[in-house]
Amino acid sequence: MGCCGSKPLTKSDLVSKPETILGKPLEDIKKHYSFGDELGRGQVGTITYLCKENSTGKSYACKSISKKKLSSQEEKEAVKTEIQIMDHVSGQPNIVQIKASYEDKNSIHIVMELCGGGELFDKIDALVQSHSYYSEKDAAGIFRSIVNAVKICHSLDVVHCDLKPENFLFSSEDDNANAMLKAIDFGCSVYIKKGETFEKIVGSKYYVAPEVLEGRYGKEIDIWSAGVILYILLSGVPPFQTDAEIKGGRPDFDSQPWPLISETAKHLIRKMLIKNPKERISAADVLEHPWMTSEAPDKPLDCVVLSRMKKFRAMNKFKKLALKVIAERLSEEEIKGLKTMFENMDTDNSGSITYEELKTGLNRHGSRLSETEAKQLIEAADVDGNGTIDYIEFIAATMQRHKLERDEILHRAFQDLDKDNSGYITKEELEIAMKERGMGDEANAKEIISEIDKNYDGKIDYEEFCTMLRN
């Protein structure tokens, strides 16, 4: 008999219920959805899949987050916040719509609208094909959707915190108004109250605002990141490459194609990339800027813009792949010291280094890397996008670059990618190599071939391979 007249405990009462992250019962998502192809990979062990609702046959995207990768309470809270924020901003234009969230014993699943129209740069390619050129007016039309998403977030007291071209997708492949550009990935997003500031390092290389590097920021960081995107839309390259440039440099408006870009466009970018966040233009005012409303010219932009834009995206992907292939084949002698350094940093002997382990290890080695640079090292080295650096990724990121001058090392890597020993890396061989390392798909391989293949024979020869790596 229980005390105070309560009912006696049964066996089922004594079985502890599994602790959940989302605070609701565990549920098998496959009762409701059938999973298809992988659509992409993100940070901290996330994979996005194509899925189909069993009851309606309608297609969605499902972001699945491995619970094993959520080791800290902070990471678990971040996932809860991401879902809450997606619920909060859902129903608004230019923002991806959430359908439902589930949790099972292994993963958290976020089912959302399927945006099948491709990334921002894909749309620019489509524009060129449809009317043979790309203009400031085209860029302004694309950029309006980006800033509108920022305005909506800010009006709902949300800061996105990770605006970059990869985090915008078109809702469909339609070449009309129905193909709406939508902000995705609210994994870094936070709620913000008036006057509140944050200190945690957020954002991605090239797009991070100077006040983030200083460790005290508010919603104005989204305006800076959007300004960087606009600079890329008009020139094909980011305005700043390093933390020092972000903190103290000025955007280059002198080299090509800037002399041919309108003064109103440059005026808007300057207003968005003001170092002092208090002086930075708001999202609402960006939408009312003359360049956005009426003054963006409809004349073709210099062809160098499209060429740079494609290179910027393709080179980063292929260089990461090539460095990982090289690292896989380096001998013990060639990486003397790096293996010991990795093992010392991998304090839990898991075979991979987390951000916290990297930061602690770098401090122990007397590194002067800032917290942001450490975060960017994780992001740059994490080739398969699982949020940690494995042994091979670590070697690829830290090996001395002078090794790339040695022909025997480059030749070995080239042979690894040239599976049939034809003397060329074909699109099919590149696609296999990228898939094996969780780095991309057929579209990525096609894009890389087109940018690196200088003699237009549809494949990469050894000379083209070496030129890309050594540049």
From TrEMBL:
Superkingdom per UniProt: Eukaryota
EC number assigned by the record: 2.7.11.1
Domain EF-hand: 333-368, 369-404, 405-440, 441-471
GO MF term (any one): protein serine/threonine kinase activity
Chain segments annotated as transmembrane: none
Substrates-to-products reaction catalysed: L-threonyl-[protein] + ATP = O-phospho-L-threonyl-[protein] + ADP + H(+); L-seryl-[protein] + ATP = O-phospho-L-seryl-[protein] + ADP + H(+)
SUPFAM superfamilies reported for this sequence: EF-hand (SSF47473), Protein kinase-like (PK-like) (SSF56112)
Pfam families: EF-hand_7, Pkinase
PROSITE patterns xrefs: EF_HAND_1, EF_HAND_2, PROTEIN_KINASE_DOM, PROTEIN_KINASE_ST
Lyase as UniProt keyword: no
Enzyme class: transferase
Keyword annotations of the record: ATP-binding, Calcium, Kinase, Metal-binding, Nucleotide-binding, Phosphoprotein, Repeat, Serine/threonine-protein kinase, Transferase
Domain Protein kinase, first and last residues per copy: 33-292
PANTHER family found in the cross-reference section: SERINE/THREONINE-PROTEIN KINASE
Assigned protein family: Belongs to the protein kinase superfamily. CAMK Ser/Thr protein kinase family. SNF1 subfamily. Belongs to the protein kinase superfamily. Ser/Thr protein kinase family. CDPK subfamily.
Function recorded in the entry: CIPK serine-threonine protein kinases interact with CBL proteins. Binding of a CBL protein to the regulatory NAF domain of CIPK protein lead to the activation of the kinase in a calcium-dependent manner.
Name of this chain's protein: non-specific serine/threonine protein kinase
Lineage: Eukaryota, Viridiplantae, Streptophyta, Embryophyta, Tracheophyta
